Write a sequence for this structure.
C-alpha cells in the first residue's frame, strides 16, 4: 500500500479552513515587541488581523502542521526548518505534516535566495515551536492543577515531571487553544542537549514523491481546460515586434490562438519580456506552431553587443582606477616605489553564465476578468523562489494589490537564482487574461539559455609588489562587470556594495598596503544573480593570485596562503561600506581564524603534500561567503594529451550551527559539480546582440563522467549562529581546480572556462 | 488514433503522429513523472523504457512507438520499490529531484543489461543524463547498491 502523503500544498485559506474546530493555531511573530497572537481555527481570512507570521498548527488528532514558507529547490529546506519547530515543540516527527505556504508578506521574506533560509528563520522557527509548547504545557498544568514549570514536552506529550503523568498533544489541543499566547521574551528555549532532530539526518519530506515520479513541479501542474503556451521573444535584449504571421501559426494542428505580449518598459526588473505567444492544446502543438510565426524584430540599442569586444573593454577598465571600496595603507604608493622586478600582475576573466536549471522557467496562471474588465481571479502556480516578488509584479502588471494575487509555490526543478525572477509567471498571467482560461507557459531550453538573467561577465586585474620572500607588500585589485542594478535602475553601471562585498571589499588577506576597487560597465543583457553571484569572479581572482605568487616564490601554496591570511583575527572593516549579507558584523564577523581552520583541515584531509604521480596534482582555495567559511582541495589528473579528470575533491565547511548535516553534505557535493560546470565549460557569448548558445550541446554542464568523482565533505562542529550553505561551496571550487591544473601541467588559467585551453603537457 | 501500450495498459490517443512521446505522456495522458529538459536528447530527463531499452521520449515521434511497450516511472514498480528507487531513497540521492526520474529509468535499464556495472560502465551508461544539482556521486553509489540488490 502506498503511504499517505505527508505533505500537501495548500492556500492559507484552505489551510485554516481544513483544520476544523478545536485546532490550535498559532501565529508566531518574531522581530518585534508585539506579543504573539492566537488565531482560532476556521477563521475567515479577515480574522487574521492579529498576526501575520503563521507557522504552526495542531489539529485535534494531535498532528502538528508546520507551514513551509521557503521554496524547495533541492536544499531540503522543507525538511530542515520544520525540524527546528518540531524540536523546540517536542513533537514526534512522524506526527508532523508540512504544508507549503502561498506567497504572503506576513510570513516574512520568502525569497529563497542568498543562502538565507536557515540563518534568517532558525530563530523564528524556535519561537514558533516554543510558543506552541508553552501553551500546551500550561494547558496540561491547568488540567493537573500543577505549576507549568514542572510540565515539559517530550515526544508529542506533556509530561508531569513529579508524577510521570502524560497527556498527548492531541488531548490538549482544545485547552491549549484557550491559553494566552506567551510573549516572545518570556519563552524558554530548549538547550541543544535536548534536541532530537536538529543535527540529525531525518528523511526528506519530499523524497518518496521524487522517487516514484508523483512529485509536482511547476511544469506538472494542471487545471481543467488549460491551454499550453510557447512564447517567441526578441532575440536581442529590448527588441520589439515588427511583424509576424499569426495565420500560419493558427493553421497548425492544435492551435487555439496567437497572442501578442507587450514589450517591457525599461527598467526591465521582473516584467515579462514581451513577444508573441501561441496558445494550443499541448506543449508540442504550441512549440510546433511557434516555428510558423516567422517573426521579424526591431532589434534596438543592444544589437551591437558582442562579448568578444566587450571583454576587451572590461579588461581595459579593470586596469584603470575605479571606485575604491577598502583601503589599507597606500597600495598605489607602495607599487610606485617598488622596483619592477618585484611587481606581479595578472588579469582574470569569467564570462557570462546561465542558470540552466533542469526544469526551465514555467508557470500556470488562471486570471479572470468580469464584463467591466475588473480582475476577479488572479492565481498562479509556479516553481518560484520568490512568491512575494511574483505577487508584487502581478499587482503592478494588473493594477491590483499584491494580496489579491494568489501565488502557489510548487516544487522547483532547480533554481540557482533564476527562479527568483518572476517574469515567466507574469507571462502566463497575461496570456491567461487574454485567453479567459488557465494557461501554462513552458520555456524551452533554448528560450531559457537565450533569455536568462545572466551572471555578469567580469574582468579582474591584480597587481602586487612582493618582498624577497615573495610575500605581498602591496595588493591592488580592480574588478569590472555590469551590475545587477542595471536590470532595475536605468543606466546603472557601477557595482553595488553587495557586489563588491562578495569577496572583494572583505578580502581577508593580511597585506600592509591594500586597495580594492570596481570600475564601470554597461549592461546589454539582463544581468542577474546566479548561485554565489559576484563571489564567482572575486574568488577566482583572489584565490588564483596567491597560488601564482606562491609558485613564483618557489613556496608551497598552502603554506603561502596561510601566511597571507595572517593571524586569526576579526577582519577590521571599520568605515567600509560592507553589507555582510545584511547580517550584523557583531554576530557574524569576518573571522579569519575560522577561514584558516577550514583551509588547514581541508589540506589535512586531502593529504596535502603527499606525492602524486606526474600529471596528478592538488589545488587549494578558501573563501568566506554568505557568512560561512569553506575550503576546497581539488585533485586533478591531466593526461599528456590534455584530458582532464577530477578524481577527488575535499570540502570543509564551517556554517555555524547545522540543522540537517546530510543536506549540507549534499549541497557541497552539488556545489562541486556546479563549480566544475562553470569552470570547465560555462560561457554564454553574444554576437550582434544575440546569445549564441541554445542547448546543452553548446552550453555544456558536467555529466557523470566529467564531474568530480568523489567529494569528501567535512562539516566543522560549531555552535556559532547558523550561516549560509547553498551557495558557499561554489566560489572556491574554480580556483582550486585551476590551481591544481597549474600544479599538474604548468599551465595557468586566468580566463574561464577551462575548455578554451589546451591542457596538454610533456 | 494511435494505439499505445503504456505501463501495461492499452491507450488510444488522437494526436499528430509527429508529436514526441514525451508530450503525449505529459499533456495528453497526464503522466507527468517523465520530464522535459532539453527537447533534443541532450539531458535524459525524458527517459522512458521502450521494450525495456532506455529511450529519449522528447525526440521520439509517438507514431514510432505504436504497438511497442512503453514503461514510464509511473510503471517502473508498483510501489516505488524498484531496487533503483529503493537505493535512491536510502542514499537520499535527489536534491531538487527533477532529473532523477530520467536518471533512475536510465539506471534501471543499465543494471538490467550490466548486472555488475564498473565505474566505466556507469560513466558510459549515464553519460546522457544531466543533473544540474550535481548528485552524480550519489547516483553512482546508488546504482552500485541497486545492482547488488538485483543480483542477490
Amino acid at each position: 500500500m502506498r503511504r499517505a502523503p505527508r505533505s500537501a500544498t495548500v492556500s492559507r485559506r484552505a489551510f485554516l479552513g481544513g483544520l476544523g474546530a478545536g485546532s490550535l493555531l498559532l501565529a508566531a511573530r518574531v522581530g518585534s515587541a508585539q506579543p504573539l497572537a492566537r488565531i482560532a481555527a476556521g477563521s475567515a481570512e479577515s480574522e487574521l488581523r492579529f498576526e501575520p507570521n503563521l507557522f504552526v498548527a495542531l489539529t485535534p488528532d494531535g498532528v502538528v502542521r508546520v507551514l513551509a514558507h521557503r521554496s524547495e529547490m533541492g536544499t531540503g529546506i522543507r525538511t530542515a526548518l520544520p525540524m527546528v519547530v518540531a524540536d523546540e515543540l517536542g513533537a514526534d516527527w512522524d506526527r508532523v505534516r508540512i504544508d507549503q505556504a502561498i506567497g504572503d508578506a506576513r510570513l516574512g521574506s520568502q525569497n529563497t535566495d542568498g543562502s538565507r533560509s536557515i540563518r534568517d528563520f532558525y530563530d523564528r522557527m524556535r519561537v514558533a515551536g516554543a510558543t506552541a509548547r508553552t501553551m500546551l504545557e500550561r494547558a496540561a498544568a491547568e488540567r493537573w492543577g500543577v505549576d507549568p514549570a514542572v510540565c515539559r514536552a517530550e515526544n508529542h506529550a506533556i509530561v508531569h515531571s513529579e508524577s510521570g503523568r502524560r497527556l498527548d498533544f492531541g488531548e490538549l489541543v482544545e485547552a491549549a487553544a484557550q491559553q494566552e499566547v506567551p510573549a516572545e521574551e518570556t519563552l524558554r528555549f530548549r538547550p541543544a542537549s535536548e534536541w532530537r532532530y536538529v543535527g540529525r539526518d531525518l528523511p526528506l519530506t519530499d523524497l518518496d514523491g521524487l522517487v516514484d515520479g508523483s512529485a509536482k513541479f511547476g511544469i506538472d501542474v494542471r487545471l481543467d481546460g488549460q491551454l499550453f503556451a510557447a512564447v517567441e521573444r526578441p532575440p536581442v535584449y529590448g527588441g520589439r515586434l515588427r511583424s509576424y504571421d499569426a495565420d500560419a501559426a493558427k493553421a497548425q494542428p492544435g492551435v487555439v490562438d496567437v497572442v501578442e505580449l507587450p514589450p517591457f518598459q525599461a527598467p526591465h526588473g521582473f516584467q515579462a519580456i514581451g513577444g508573441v505567444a501561441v496558445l494550443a492544446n499541448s506543449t508540442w502543438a504550441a512549440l510546433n506552431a511557434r516555428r510558423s510565426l516567422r517573426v521579424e524584430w526591431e532589434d534596438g540599442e543592444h544589437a551591437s553587443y558582442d562579448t568578444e569586444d566587450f571583454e576587451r573593454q572590461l579588461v581595459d577598465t579593470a586596469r584603470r582606477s575605479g571606485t575604491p571600496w577598502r583601503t589599507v595603507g597606500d597600495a598605489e604608493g607602495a607599487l610606485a616605489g617598488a622596483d619592477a622586478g618585484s611587481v606581479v600582475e595578472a588579469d582574470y576573466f569569467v564570462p557570462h553564465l546561465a542558470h540552466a536549471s533542469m526544469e526551465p522557467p514555467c508557470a500556470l496562471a488562471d486570471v479572470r476578468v468580469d464584463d467591466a474588465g475588473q480582475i476577479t481571479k488572479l492565481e498562479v502556480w509556479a516553481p518560484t523562489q520568490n512568491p512575494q516578488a511574483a505577487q508584487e509584479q502581478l499587482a503592478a502588471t494588473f493594477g491590483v494589490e499584491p494580496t489579491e494575487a494568489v501565488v502557489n509555490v510548487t516544487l522547483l526543478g532547480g533554481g540557482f537564482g533564476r527562479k527568483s525572477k518572476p517574469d515567466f509567471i507574469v507571462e502566463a498571467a497575461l496570456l491567461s487574461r487574454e485567453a479567459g482560461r488557465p494557461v501554462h507557459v513552458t520555456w524551452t531550453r533554448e528560450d531559457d539559455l537565450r533569455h536568462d538573467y545572466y551572471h555578469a561577465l567580469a574582468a579582474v586585474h591584480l597587481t602586487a609588489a612582493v618582498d624577497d620572500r615573495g610575500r605581498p607588500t602591496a595588493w591592488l585589485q580592480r574588478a569590472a562587470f555590469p551590475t545587477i542594478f542595471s536590470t532595475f535602475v536605468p543606466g546603472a553601471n557601477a557595482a553595488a556594495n553587495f557586489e563588491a562585498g562578495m569577496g572583494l571589499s572583505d578580502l581577508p588577506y593580511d597585506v600592509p598596503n591594500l586597495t580594492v576597487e570596481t570600475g564601470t560597465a554597461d549592461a546589454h543583457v539582463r544581468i542577474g544573480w546566479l548561485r554565489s553571484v559576484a563571489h564567482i569572479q572575486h574568488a577566482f581572482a583572489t584565490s588564483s593570485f596567491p597560488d601564482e605568487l606562491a609558485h613564483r616564490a618557489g613556496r608551497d601554496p598552502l603554506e603561502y596562503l596561510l601566511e597571507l591570511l595572517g593571524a586569526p583575527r576579526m577582519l577590521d572593516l571599520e568605515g567600509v561600506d560592507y553589507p555582510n549579507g545584511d547580517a550584523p558584523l557583531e554576530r557574524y564577523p569576518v573571522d579569519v581564524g575560522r577561514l584558516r581552520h577550514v583551509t588547514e583541515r581541508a589540506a589535512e584531509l586531502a593529504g596535502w603534500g603527499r606525492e602524486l604521480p606526474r600529471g596528478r596534482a592538488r589545488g587549494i582555495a578558501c573563501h568566506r561567503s554568505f557568512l560561512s567559511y569553506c575550503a576546497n582541495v581539488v585533485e586533478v589528473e591531466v593526461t599528456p594529451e590534455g584530458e582532464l579528470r577530477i578524481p577527488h575533491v575535499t570540502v570543509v565547511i564551517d556554517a555555524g550551527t547545522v540543522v540537517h548535516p546530510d543536506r549540507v553534505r549534499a549541497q557541497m557535493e552539488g556545489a562541486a559539480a556546479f563549480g566544475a560546470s562553470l569552470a570547465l565549460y560555462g560561457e554564454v557569448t553574444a554576437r550582434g546582440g544575440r546569445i549564441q548558445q541554445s542547448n546543452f550541446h553548446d552550453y555544456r554542464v558536467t555529466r557523470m563522467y566529467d564531474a568530480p568523482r568523489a567529494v569528501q565533505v567535512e562539516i566543522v562542529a560549531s555552535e556559532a549562529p547558523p550561516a549560509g550553505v547553498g551557495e558557499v561551496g561554489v566560489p572556491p571550487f574554480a580556483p582550486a581546480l585551476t590551481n591544481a591544473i597549474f600544479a599538474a601541467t604548468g599551465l595557468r588559467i586566468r580566463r574561464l572556462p577551462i575548455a578554451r585551453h589546451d591542457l596538454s603537457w610533456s | 488514433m494511435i494505439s499505445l501500450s503504456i505501463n501495461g495498459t492499452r491507450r488510444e490517443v488522437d494526436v499528430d503522429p509527429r508529436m514526441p512521446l514525451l508530450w503525449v505522456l505529459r499533456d495528453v495522458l497526464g503522466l507527468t513523472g517523465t520530464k522535459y529538459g532539453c527537447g533534443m536528447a541532450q539531458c535524459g530527463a525524458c527517459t522512458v523504457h521502450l521494450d525495456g531499452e532506455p529511450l529519449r521520449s522528447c525526440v521520439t515521434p509517438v507514431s514510432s512507438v505504436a504497438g511497442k511497450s512503453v514503461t514510464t516511472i509511473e510503471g517502473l514498480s508498483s510501489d516505488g520499490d524498484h531496487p533503483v528507487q529503493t537505493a535512491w531513497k536510502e542514499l537520499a540521492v535527489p536534491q531538487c529531484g527533477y532529473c532523477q526520474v530520467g536518471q533512475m529509468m536510465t539506471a534501471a535499464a543499465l543494471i538490467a543489461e550490466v548486472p555488475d556495472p564498473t565505474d566505466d560502465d556507469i560513466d558510459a551508461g549515464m553519460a546522457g543524463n544531466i543533473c544540474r544539482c550535481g548528485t552524480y556521486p550519489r547516483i553512482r553509489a546508488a546504482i552500485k547498491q541497486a545492482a547488488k540488490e538485483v543480483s542477490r
